[in-house]
Amino acid sequence: MIAVREGGNPGSDLHLWMIHGLGDSSRNFDEAFDDSALADFHLFAPDLPGFGNSPASPDGYTIASVAGLLRAEIGKRSAGARIVLLGHSIGGLIVTRIARRAGARIRGVISVEGNLTRADTFVSGRALEYDQGDGFHRDLVAEAEAKCDRLPLLERHYETLRKADPTTFWALGRSAASETGESAAGEAFAALPHAKIYYWGTNSTPESTRVFLITNRIEQRSLEGSGHWPMLDAPGLFYGMVGEDVSRMG
Prior knowledge:
This protein is of the alpha/beta class.
């Protein structure tokens, strides 16, 4: 399932694809579809296999296979368009893979709290501790539920995580942890020839990732007081920044 909104400017051929993270769905980007900062862009927000309204599939078990599915879908829906990719959390791994294979069609890549170093695998890395998906899913759902009273913004994450396919959640988490490595994911992102920006919340991004960004001179946007979901913490600020960056990249 892909949430789609045609841009308000009929002459615009700028397409923004927004890819959610582990245990989430396209609902993470609900506010994008009503934000005036993105009004001129064509928006696409898919549910990855096994999440949201998309059925589970063996093709959803690895970062590489999901990237392949999305690359094909983007090729069909955005043929001839100028494309900017935005990936949240492990979605950052996915959009990096897509960009590496899609060439000049991609005008820019935005990674939002995406995996760069091993320290970023605070959820996906835990999948390596489990031998099957049911236990991993059950434990993470219980933890998310317990956090909702303290952090109401996690209600959306909890609802989507609760409905996620357990095997997909576990397998994709393991794949994401493997692909991240010590800093392999960050090195792949830094090596992209496209315009690229990393968004991070000051309440969640680990020190090693901040150092990596500086050392590799990656353009970055810090959101003061935000956590891992800045699009939910401060949607107005977040999408205002996205709108400016997408316009500049396109």
